[in-house]
Amino acid sequence: MSNISELYGSMVFNEHTMQERLPSATYKSLLKTIRDGEPLDLEVANVVAHAMKEWAIEKGATHYTHWFQPLSGITSEKHDSFLDPCPDGRAIMSFSGKELIQGEPDASSFPSGGLRATFEARGYTAWDPTSYAFIKDEVLCIPTAFCSYTGEALDKKTPLLRSMSAVEDQANRVLALFGEPHQRVTTTVGSEQEYFLISEKDYAARQDLILTGRTLFGYPPCKGQELEEHYFGAIRPTVNEFMKTLDDELWALGVSAKTKHNEVAPAQHELAPIYTNVNRAVDENLLTMEKMRLLASRYGLVCLQHEKPFEGINGSGKHNNWSVSAGKTNLLDPGDTPMDNLRFLVFLTGVIQAVDDYQELLRMSVASAGNDHRLGANEAPPAIVSIFLGDELDAIVEALITGQEGAYNNVEKVAMDLGVAVLPNFLKDNTDRNRTSPFAFTGNKFEFRMPGSSLNLSDCNMILNTAMAKSLKEFADALEGKSGQEFEAAAIEYIRESLIKHQRIIFNGNGYSQEWEEEAAKRGLANKKTTADSLPCFIEKKSIELFEAFEVLSEAEIKSRYEVKLEKYNKTLNIEARVMKRMARRTFLPAINEYAASLAATITAIKAVSPDAPLAHQEAQLKRLLSGIDEAAGHLEALDETHHRVRDIENEQEKASAYAEEVIPLMQKLRHAIDGLERLTDRAHWPVPTYNDILFYT
Ligand code: ADP
Ligand code: MG
Questions:
Q1: Which fold, 569-695?
Q2: Where are the beta strands (DSSP E) in 393-444?
Q3: CATH code, 163-553
Q4: What tens digit of pLDDT does each residue of 349-361 get?
Q5: Cβ(599)–Cβ(618) below 8 Å
Q6: Ligand 2 centre from 440 Cα, in Å?
Q7: Residue list, ligand 1 pocket, CB within 6 Å
Q8: Distance separating alpha carbons of residues 66 and 133, to the nearest angstrom
Q9: How confident is the model over 49-58, as a mean pLDDT?
Q10: CA distance 299 to 311
Q11: All residues with CB under 5 Å from ion ligand 2
Q12: Which fold has domain 4-154?
């Protein structure tokens, strides 16, 4: 095992390496930047760059890149070599502080939602020293933020970093009321990543998987996930090999991959890392996803990260476990003393307020064409945001609201002067899991379960952080100036009022049920079923006010992000509709026709030899095939016509709504007609691998 501790983080320029490699003054000054957010000066950067380069070259690196996350959400990199030719024809390897701190990628092809057109054509990248540099495939990768020259964020990381500062500032105001010194407050995230592994051979035989990441057609397999034998089951040998290599590679990159297991669906798996501060957690998740995709091919596999690769089989999510910590203290940990409990309740109430007030933004942050197939499909939380607290905590909230001790008689507790129950310790090992809740308290953190597997988690965390900063600000605004008993009493009263106001967001029942949808509507909770419906809230006044107040996003930045999301949705659906039509027209219908023709030929041949042979079955089968073909062709024509009309709509929001309301239903009709024919067609005539083939490989 000493092997693993040697391996772990070996490709990362982490604090340990910094301390080893940097002069002590430089190290201290860099640490100040990392821990306290102090600006980095060029002299320090020069020394850091030199040390980083020497380290990287020793590890075999030849190039460096500013590694960033444009609005497409996936990471981008452009490799520059360290090579610096000398006049005498030789070359040295060089890397300056300036090259470390700032880069200028030719960024004209990244989505900017019109931002760069209005301001500056170029963008620049700036080192985020809070996320460690690392070596990947002989390239030194420097995690960076990506901005326009006028300072507008063109990436996912910048607003996330800004939102972290917002929480930090406001949390410190609240902590000061509890008599605590100013300290580093960070939001922490651990993301559980689900994915499918299928054989490369099957993947290569399906245009839909290659071009859209999901199967646009496919009749359900004979066996699905009903036996529930796959979950936590023995892992296939090849998959096991893949997972082992993945762990090794991730550990070398300092990604603390911790748990791996089979998921509910056949061929589905999950990887969970140990949590870290949110900006690193996002970087690590993106690296994990990239490694999964690349390594799979070594084992003849393909890693599918789409939210819904197979209809009728569970899709893949990415649970976002979120908390706030001050130094080493988790502020969502109930704690042992009355004051710890009061602080916990302040932060807990802050989350409840944040999630209720900005439920639509949270829903928006996970909206994508792929995730629309998951949310509300009885395998993932519904499109309605609600919070699950668990019985114990719920009883305490109830008691706080009603002010009645009796309401929480069943809770093991010690009553305290202030009328708050000291939260029982067992809360911490709360295993009372409600899998149907989109936002569940799990003992000392909240688990946001709506994000889809392919999502970049920056957006939802930026929203959570900013909304949380607002809750904390309001608390601090109301309570500052009070201390001692007066503070405690006022804090309890504040919590009570806030809980009364936001109680509607708390729901401990079955989130998959029809009754909840009705109940949620009565409570006035939003239920935006599609991406097209959920995006507009981003550009509403309420949202602009929130992000501007905490300097997380400007109005222009918000609008550009909204545009990018809309465009991505529309482009995805355009591609899906095109692939679908092409496959129906050129792959499936010809194959089914061929089978029908061979069946007709069989009937004719039999009749020629034996005119009285019983052929009712064959004739009925032929009829079913022909009427199925007729039906599918009708849907294909309707889809074609509607798709062409929708594609030409100029307004992107109208186009998105038309895709959601008109095109998708026709796509479903075509799919089901073809899937019905798959069931009738001779396997030998079926032109692509079926769900049976793909999901149950050995
Ligand atoms: P599960 O939801 O599968 O039962 P766990 O409870 O083990 O899984 O944890 C899920 C994830 O939550 C892990 O990635 C873990 O590191 C993360 N996690 C644990 N504590 C915190 C915290 N304080 N902040 C953020 N994430 C956390
Ligand atoms: Mg989980």
A1: Four Helix Bundle (Hemerythrin (Met), subunit A) (1.20.120)
A2: 414-415, 421-422, 439-441
A3: 3.30.590.10
A4: 999 999 999 999 9
A5: yes
A6: 9
A7: 188-190, 192, 272-275, 321-323, 330, 442, 444-445, 447
A8: 9
A9: 96
A10: 25
A11: 192, 319
A12: Ubiquitin-like (UB roll) (3.10.20)
